[in-house]
Amino acid sequence: MSKPKCEDQVALNLWYTIAPIAELEEPGAQQTILLEQQIAYARNAAGEVVVWAHEGVPGGVPEQNTLPVQERYGYVWTTLGSPNSDIFPIPEYAEADRRNIHAATFGVNVSAPRLVENFLDMGHFPFVHTDILGAEPHTEVKEYFVEVSEERDEIIASNCKFWQPMAAAASSGGADVDYIYRVPHPFCSVLYKSSPLDESRKDVIAIFIQPFNQEQVRVHMLLSLLDDANNDTDIRLFQQTIFGQDKPILENQYPKRLPLDPRAETPIRADKSAIAYRRWLSGKGITYGVIPPAA
Amino acid sequence: MMSDLHSNWYPIASSSDLPKRHVYQAQLLGREFAVWRADDGHVNVWENRCLHRGVRLSIGINNGTELKCQYHGWRYANRTAGCTYIPAHPADAPARTICNNTYPAIESHGLVWSGEEASGDLLSLDGFDSATVLRAVPVFAPMNMVAEALLGYGWDDSCKGAANDDGSVTVTAGDGTAVRIFVQPMDSNHSVMRGLVNQAPAGAGRAELLQTHSWLMQELRDRVEVLAAKQEAPAPYEPVIAKVSEDLVDIPALGTDGRKAELRVQLVKKEMTAEGIVSLRLEPIKGQLPTFQPGAHIDVHLPNGLVRQYSITNGPGETDHYTIGVKREGDGRGGSAAVHDSLQEGDVLAISAPRNNFPLRRDAEHTVFIAGGIGVTPMIAMARALNAQGLSFEFHYFVQSDDHVAFKQQIGEFERALTIHKGLSPEATGAKLKEVLAEPGFARHVYICGPGPMLEATRGIAASQGWTDEAVHFEYFANTAEVDDSTAFEVDLARSALTLQVPAGKTILEVLREHGIDMPSSCEQGACGTCRCGVIEGEVIHQDVYLSNAEKAEGKSIMTCVSRAASDRLILDI
């Protein structure tokens, strides 16, 4: 691979999801883009997943100069740099009674950090996901906790509660739903949502963002659910409806990159997790997909 | 060069681009605008960006009085672009400094004109008073190249083009028919031609005129775009996005505006609205009035030196004036008499900017308003806001008689939600309130404003019917209790690292002021909540009528104008 187009060393050294493993059942090499670099992926004759960078036509599966590969959570992960840590853990994925579903891969014309903030945000539920994840006039974002775990290098927002009109299929009216959010990777997030079936456990929804460039991404969404009532198609359709509602909002954000200057936008208490996220990104020295604060 | 362009007026839309309740997306010199007409006819040209998370306001909702962002439902007022409501925090009044960037706008000759720093009048458009607005035709070419090509525009051999001082081109034919075409620079390499013809035929004549010029301008467009494609495209403009004000970055700090009368207004209309109640319409002498929220009040500085607080009764989006109601108080201290007897239409008054210490939650499934007498004024603004949003409420107005019903037209908007209770005895009022407050419940709130005894009684009834403190909101006109200022104590200011002595006979507020600490205040008798301040340590004698019982028991805040220490020392969060 020649010199990468992305000049952000922090972003280069991260692991990225580039495709659900199921896509490798297609014959031949598949192509995609990561951080402006064309890459291809395929299974070789031995059945191993191979990922490589290329310009123009990808050619056959190479034996040398391939990129690092991991298969994790049902996806192919790779990197253009030298990661100094492993892919973050999602222990729930391995629990035997869960259903792990690839819900969708969605293209969005926005920067990765704007998408992460949208995923962390509860205040938009009544306005963007009307009558599904929220409904006017129940618009209050109650106080919640945010901490940055030094040990795990991730942001955790807990004790998040939001009133939802139909918290579960079985409920007869609205109720507060509990959420916990994790941001264990600058461009990935995991949320835990009260399960209607088991009070002691939570459904897991994770997003893994694959930046094509600074202002265009695709996002892979993993579900790890305790639900055994709905079929895969209905569950996917539900998530895709939600995503389809967020997409036009995200694509109308200006600027598309996330401004890290505290005076660029107007945060409120409900945005505590976003404030922590912006500061965490600043601290990491990330420049990809953001507008760094003026020196 | 840039600043020259920014001080010009350019047409950015046709009047017909702004039908009722629409938001139009325009662009000038690389900067996007959200352009919308309020129901009162005012054309707003705003930065096309919600201050919160940068979402385009052109995808927002124009409800006729306010523009609502699609992402989090923030509401911005007609004219001022000030934020009136943040749904994520329904109990809080948004900071007054949350205000979007607005740009000058003139609507004239069927076009809407703007410019980042445009001022003064448009150049004369004499001869185009009865004009036809042509279809706007975009051109992917720089503005100057389009203007130059327009000099050769024409529909017959007699046509002659001439450049005007404002950069537009007028093409005149031998028979006197003239077309004036303006070039709107969307960006450095993207322009729009907007033309006016000095004729206004109807029917088939109009259609023919529009078709002819549409075709000719399209032809010109094609020619100019071929030329432009041969040149290197100029770099796009990079409009600077203004930063939000510093005080919005962190949790809002204490205000520093004291008891000030920063606004000058003219009393434009004074009329009796009910027995003993006068309605005053105040308009700005120049510029705009600041954004108000329902429940807000202003300080009015009266000619006799007194300062009084009056609630704003305006509905959402009524931003070109404030209307207040003043009742003549027989036993008052002379404020209301001064309003009734001395003020005349045309008088200039000093007022404060609106303050909202009585914010309205809009996350209730049902809201009950209980107004007694002149206490109706803040309730009118609140109920009009809920009414405009289609939220459920009921409005109970207790008066002595029909002659005492104020603001009949405004409360008439509430239709079936309005009940006027006339001439009830205190006992009958109590019985009625029991009935009205029979159903506390999830997401139900009650707002009370009226004379002290009625307010006390209503709070008591609400509590006994099971309404929680959090669901009962009230505002007293005045603190009628005797305030005891006979104690002496010490206050520590935690953030300013100062220790001050408060002697008998002086308030904390007075002592703070003496030491140069600016603290906002308004009524200075423990009723309005403006001089509220956090308490970190120490026992408090509250003496105010602003805080709820739960808030008083918590002891986390005081009104510096009346509250005192029960202990030797208070540590305040200042």
TrEMBL record, chain A:
<feature type="domain" description="Vanillate O-demethylase oxygenase-like C-terminal catalytic">
    <location>
        <begin position="109"/>
        <end position="282"/>
    </location>
</feature>
<keyword id="KW-0223">Dioxygenase</keyword>
<dbReference type="GO" id="GO:0051213">
    <property type="term" value="F:dioxygenase activity"/>
</dbReference>
<dbReference type="InterPro" id="IPR050584">
    <property type="entry name" value="Cholesterol_7-desaturase"/>
</dbReference>
<dbReference type="Pfam" id="PF19112">
    <property type="entry name" value="VanA_C"/>
</dbReference>
<dbReference type="InterPro" id="IPR044043">
    <property type="entry name" value="VanA_C_cat"/>
</dbReference>
<protein>
    <submittedName>
        <fullName>Phenylpropionate dioxygenase, large terminal subunit</fullName>
    </submittedName>
</protein>
<keyword id="KW-0560">Oxidoreductase</keyword>
From TrEMBL, chain B:
<dbReference type="InterPro" id="IPR036922">
    <property type="entry name" value="Rieske_2Fe-2S_sf"/>
</dbReference>
<dbReference type="InterPro" id="IPR017941">
    <property type="entry name" value="Rieske_2Fe-2S"/>
</dbReference>
<dbReference type="GO" id="GO:0016491">
    <property type="term" value="F:oxidoreductase activity"/>
</dbReference>
<keyword id="KW-0411">Iron-sulfur</keyword>
<dbReference type="InterPro" id="IPR039261">
    <property type="entry name" value="FNR_nucleotide-bd"/>
</dbReference>
<dbReference type="InterPro" id="IPR017938">
    <property type="entry name" value="Riboflavin_synthase-like_b-brl"/>
</dbReference>
<keyword id="KW-0479">Metal-binding</keyword>
<dbReference type="GO" id="GO:0051537">
    <property type="term" value="F:2 iron, 2 sulfur cluster binding"/>
</dbReference>
<dbReference type="InterPro" id="IPR017927">
    <property type="entry name" value="FAD-bd_FR_type"/>
</dbReference>
<dbReference type="InterPro" id="IPR006058">
    <property type="entry name" value="2Fe2S_fd_BS"/>
</dbReference>
<dbReference type="InterPro" id="IPR012675">
    <property type="entry name" value="Beta-grasp_dom_sf"/>
</dbReference>
<protein>
    <submittedName>
        <fullName>Ferredoxin-NADP reductase</fullName>
    </submittedName>
</protein>
<keyword id="KW-0001">2Fe-2S</keyword>
<dbReference type="GO" id="GO:0046872">
    <property type="term" value="F:metal ion binding"/>
</dbReference>
<feature type="domain" description="FAD-binding FR-type">
    <location>
        <begin position="258"/>
        <end position="361"/>
    </location>
</feature>
<keyword id="KW-0560">Oxidoreductase</keyword>
<keyword id="KW-0285">Flavoprotein</keyword>
<feature type="domain" description="2Fe-2S ferredoxin-type">
    <location>
        <begin position="489"/>
        <end position="574"/>
    </location>
</feature>
<dbReference type="Pfam" id="PF00111">
    <property type="entry name" value="Fer2"/>
</dbReference>
<dbReference type="InterPro" id="IPR050415">
    <property type="entry name" value="MRET"/>
</dbReference>
<feature type="domain" description="Rieske">
    <location>
        <begin position="9"/>
        <end position="114"/>
    </location>
</feature>
<keyword id="KW-0408">Iron</keyword>
